[in-house]
Design a protein that fits this description.
alpha/beta; 2 domains; nine-stranded mixed beta sheet; six-stranded mixed beta sheet; 11 helices
């Protein structure tokens, strides 16, 4: 039995059966946004600029690498950024939560720990992004906030909106959930400040490419190799992300033969998920690695990615912040 998201990007009649629910979802999404714009639902504006990074579709598009790039770019331009996020998958008993590089991903979420390690800047998570941002400002000196995956969290006022698009899958059948992958109608992209496309961009979009970084051994962190050192080998590939196929194709592009092990996004890994009865290397995404470190063996490696962007977006972002 194929998962529902398979039919979002391939022809089939199943999404047609869900169209009435999809129309209702779309109506609620539009109405909710209009209520915020009309002031009938409260928007909280912070004393520092807020940059929203999000998407209008479910599944992985590359938001996390973009946030990492954005934080680095802001630092290079004299800002002291902080990050807020949902903390998806975190099981904390109270919110907001401060996130550090050594935080438990089971408490604050896997993407939050990954961002904290990569960005080395203040970070707070909460289902309520406003509370997370206020907490961040109360105990740090950050002068700008980057909100990860906050495009639909309209209670948090924003100065810049950046939407991320998968350049391969785009928007599937262009229906809203559950008949399609969209969280909001496609025309929502007309109102954002910039559309960043992971892959081949369309008109008025900025290209982003994800470049494999140095592959790190999970158990012996000082051991590092290039990804192409696995060329010609067969490996187990672990991916519990929004679009596992992108990770598998990235490895194959380096001449690696891949045994695929796809898991749901934010999967709570156990040892039996990543240990196999052979001596083949096991490569996994950086987001998955933060949850597998405790039971990694000599065969486990982490493949980070770095975002490179069309630099024409930099003056646009800086101009919008100053505005």
């Amino acid at each position: 039995m194929k998962r529902l998201d398979y039919y979002w990007y391939n022809k089939g009649f199943i999404p047609l059966l869900l169209l009435p629910v999809s129309w209702l979802f779309c109506f609620v999404a539009i109405t909710r946004r209009l209520l915020y714009r009309a002031g009938l639902l409260k928007v909280y504006h912070l004393p520092v600029p807020v940059i929203i990074v999000g998407n209008i579709s479910v599944g992985g598009t590359g938001k996390t690498p973009l946030v990492t790039w954005l934080v680095d770019m802001l630092r290079r331009n004299g800002y002291t950024p902080g990050i807020v996020s949902r903390g998806y998958g975190g099981q904390a008993t109270h919110w907001p939560q401060q996130v550090r590089a050594d935080s438990d991903p089971r408490v604050v979420g896997d993407e939050a720990v990954l961002l904290s390690r990569r960005c080395a800047c203040p970070m707070a998570v909460s289902p309520n992004r406003v509370e997370a941002a206020e907490a961040l400002l109360s105990y740090t000196d950050c002068d700008i906030i980057v909100a990860d995956d906050g495009l639909q969290h309209y209670a948090l006022g924003r100065d810049v909106e950046i939407a991320v698009v998968d350049g391969v899958r785009r928007f599937g059948n262009q229906h809203c959930l559950p008949a399609g992958p969209l969280r909001e109608p496609l025309r929502r992209l007309r109102s954002v400040d910039a559309v960043v496309t992971n892959g081949m961009p369309g008109a008025r979009e900025y290209r982003m490419d994800l470049v494999p970084g140095t592959v790190r051994h999970l158990k012996f962190s000082t051991r590092r190799v290039t990804l192409n050192s696995f060329a010609g080998q067969t490996v187990h590939a672990i991916a519990g992300i929004g679009n596992p196929a992108r990770f598998f194709r990235q490895l194959e592009g380096q001449g690696i033969t891949v045994i695929e092990h796809a898991f749901p996004d934010h999967h709570p890994f156990a040892q039996e998920d990543i240990v196999f009865d052979d001596d083949l290397p096991v490569l996994m995404t950086e987001k998955d690695a933060v949850k597998c470190l405790a039971f990694a063996t000599e065969y486990h490696w982490c493949v980070p990615v770095d975002a490179t962007l069309d630099e024409r977006i930099i003056p646009l972002i800086l101009r919008l912040i100053k505005r």
